[in-house]
Amino acid sequence: MTKIVVIQGHPDPSGKHLCRALADAYVEGARSAGHQVGYFDTARLDFPLLRTQDDWQQGIAGTPESLKDVQAACVGADHLVLIYPLWMGTMPAVLKGFIEQIFRPGVALSYAEGFPKPLLKGKSARIVITMGMPALAYRWYFLAHSLRSLERNVLGIAGV
């Protein structure tokens, strides 16, 4: 049994969006296949944005109480699924703020020896981005900026 965490990143809490339908279908399919699945909707979570380097450097101790269970689920997961709409060429701000809170020092990275050491090795991820343009245009003209940045600069450096 694989432990999966699905993170739905559409910022509108109304629930009438393709991202939510995709997340619900993924959760249902994974559970019916016998996997253990956690589901978190960033639009329905209450957390502050990080505003200073000091906030960031507090690491796990600085994680808001409202996100401690989410953070523990992500650390304990074998597979992460992030689903979000493309907004102004990247992920919505609420998802970016969520990722900054969850993937703090001591969770995703260790800075003990200077250069970041990945702490999430052995995990896999699937990224689903919805957009109002053909995928070819996103890849060719926009160079898949949001996807590449998330893969390389967040997940990849953390070992995923």
Short account of what is shown:
By secondary structure, the chain is α/β, with parallel strands linked by helices.
Q: Could you describe the 3D structure shown?
A:
The structure is a single chain. The chain is an alpha/beta fold. It has a single domain, classed as Rossmann fold (3-Layer(aba) Sandwich). Helices cover 37% and strands 19% of the residues. It has six helices and six strands, in the order E-H-E-H-H-E-H-E-E-E-H-H. It has a four-stranded parallel β-sheet, sandwiched between helices. A two-stranded antiparallel ribbon has the order 4-5. The model has no long low-confidence stretch (mean pLDDT 93).
What is the CATH architecture term? 3-Layer(aba) Sandwich
- The rounded Rg comes to 16 Å
The chain-level structural class is alpha/beta
Counted up, domains total 1
> Which topology does CATH recognise?
Rossmann fold
Give short descriptive properties of this protein:
single chain, 160 residues, alpha/beta, Rossmann fold, four-stranded parallel beta sheet, two-stranded antiparallel sheet, 6 strands
Topology overview:
Blueprint: E1 3-8, H1 18-32, E2 36-41, H2 53-57, H3 68-76, E3 79-85, H4 93-102, E4 109-110, E5 117-118, E6 124-130, H5 135-140, H6 145-158
Parallel strand pairs: 1-2, 1-3, 3-6
Antiparallel strand pairs: 4-5
